[in-house]
Backbone:
């Protein structure tokens, strides 16, 4: 049994992809970033995800990023998306090759089958046969319709043995509907406004954009919540909301810039979508970083 199978709750920090000026992947900077993420104290890393720009990456790039994350994972566990290729046969090969990178868990997107529960359950059950690793679901907005009902999630847990889901409904109703059907699985949060409420309702994991540049914020929240100190947990939640608001405009370049300010020099604030941050946004992020440092929230 893998370490992830024993404990799949907790914080999954999303991994960004650094680029050179020509938009080729800067693997050297990625290795430094992976080590920085581990030092944030989180339990898990999500190596190939939406924040990684996985839809903009070629299969070989995705596989190499997963391998490098495993290389530098320390005491964390690593999960990675493994069904981004367009055809069934290519996805089967992708699952096999992603499993071979050494990751601890595989993530499947809902692949545009959100409004067809029967097809989704059949699809996941068949694709899952090509890995012996724990499998998680991801309502990835890049492949719509992506959202699924709590009833559908319950079927995935019972019929396919799914370990958890990254919920992106961004509604408390959508989140709680999955919590009601989760069984022994873990409902993992992507929405920050409802983070505290969802945890009180039974969510026990986080896969959210601010983890890409502030995993320590979430680890502090998780530890406070699990200790039963609700006053401290609410304070940590409020700090997360500030971080979320700080990076909301211009994500993921905003998160990359905060990572750069925290010491990963090769993490340039650029992405393959051609996004750029204005001088005003850069100044605002520097001010936020300085405030976090002054208050012991960032290094």
Residues:
């Amino acid at each position: 049994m893998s370490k992830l199978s024993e404990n799949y709750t907790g914080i999954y920090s999303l991994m960004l992809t650094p680029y050179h000026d020509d938009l080729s992947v800067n693997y050297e900077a990625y290795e430094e970033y992976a080590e920085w993420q581990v030092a944030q104290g989180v339990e898990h890393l999500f190596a190939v995800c939406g924040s990684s720009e996985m839809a903009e990456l070629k299969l070989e790039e995705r596989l190499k990023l997963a391998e490098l994350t495993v290389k530098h994972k320390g005491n964390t566990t690593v999960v990675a998306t493994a069904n981004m290729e367009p055809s069934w046969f290519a996805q089967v090969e992708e699952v096999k090759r992603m499993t071979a990178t050494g990751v601890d868990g595989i993530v499947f997107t809902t692949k545009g089958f959100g409004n067809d529960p029967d097809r989704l359950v059949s699809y996941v059950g068949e694709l899952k046969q090509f890995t012996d690793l724990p499998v998680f679901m991801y309502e990835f907005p890049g492949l719509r319709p992506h959202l699924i009902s709590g009833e559908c999630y319950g079927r995935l847990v019972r019929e396919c043995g799914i370990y958890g889901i990254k919920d992106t409904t961004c509604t408390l109703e959508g989140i709680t509907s999955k919590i009601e059907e989760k069984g022994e699985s873990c409902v993992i949060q992507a929405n920050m406004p409802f983070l505290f409420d969802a945890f009180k309702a039974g969510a026990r994991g986080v896969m959210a954009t601010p983890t890409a540049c502030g995993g320590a914020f979430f680890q502090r929240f998780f530890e406070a919540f699990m200790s039963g100190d609700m006053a401290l947990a609410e304070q940590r939640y409020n700090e997360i909301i500030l971080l979320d608001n700080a990076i909301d405009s211009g994500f993921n370049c905003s998160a990359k810039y905060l990572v750069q300010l925290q010491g990963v020099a090769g993490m340039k604030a650029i992405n393959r979508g051609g996004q750029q941050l204005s001088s005003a946004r850069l100044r605002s992020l520097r001010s936020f970083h300085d405030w976090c440092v002054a208050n012991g929230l960032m290094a």
